[in-house]
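Re: weekly structure request thread

Next one in the queue (319 aa):
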Amino acid sequence: MKLLTVAIPCYNSQDYMEHAVETALVGGEDVEIILVNDGSSDKTAEIADRLQKEHPTIVRAIHQENGGHGAAVNTGLANASGLYYKVLDSDDWFDRGAFLKILDVLRSFVEDGSGVDMLLANYVYEKPSLHKHKVIRYDGVFPENRVFTWNDVKRFKISQNILMHSVIYRTKMLRDCQLELPRHTFYVDNIFVYNPLPFVKKMYYVNADLYRYFIGRDDQSVNEKVMIGRIDQQIKVNKLMVDYYVEEMPRIHANVKVKRYMRNYLDIITTISSVLLIRSELEENLEKKKELWAYIKDKDKWLWARLRYGLLGNAMNLP
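Done, posted below.
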């Protein structure tokens, strides 16, 4: 069994996927790299097969019909043999030193028979075109270099949300909580770092800048114009998160601190949806904004009130 599975969803990624793979290969035989070719039309499949041939004990290529980022993450999880599971987008990369440090921590869990449900590390927004980068750290929020629980977690700043870039999950925990991301839907990374949280009991934080998140492509999913064009998918994910909080959380009996964090994160996601709908300056999207807030109110009036008059929502509902 491998120590860590790194799943790399690939869709028309021929221009940058090899760099992502190279940065994960430094983990050697402790790492399994699963390249999920999600119905690409360029040379992605050819590159994936070549990398598998060059590194047969580490790299595995899986080809599937296009199902979107979520489907590729699902496929990686279904085929993972690692004790822990990490998603690396094909245009991003790992920092070598930080990656080796984190692998040492994961090995220590195996050696002493302990383990955690979620390991966290810093991530870096990289914008090479402007020679800029911004590090998101969690010092001051999480205890460093020791196992801890939600009771030990301090207050998050708005910039310190847990994102896909910052988490490594225990594979069995993800399977036990039956995580499955929607197909043909963008922005499902929010669900990836939302739904498993109530099942996370033990955590560990390494204050190292592991994940390098590339910013700058015009067609990137986080580009504002692209997000407005895909606003219906943003709303879909927003509603799925509302459904999960209202319908599933009472059944799980989650820790009070994780519930508070998840509510605040939902506040931020709903604010993002609202901002994009306003920024589009389309009458139909202003109606969608009203409908989204009405959907939340219909689901749970208490939650609606907390979001409407909470951290950010009040500003999004001014005339």
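DSSP finds twelve helices and ten strands in the chain. The chain has a mean pLDDT of 93.
Next request, please.
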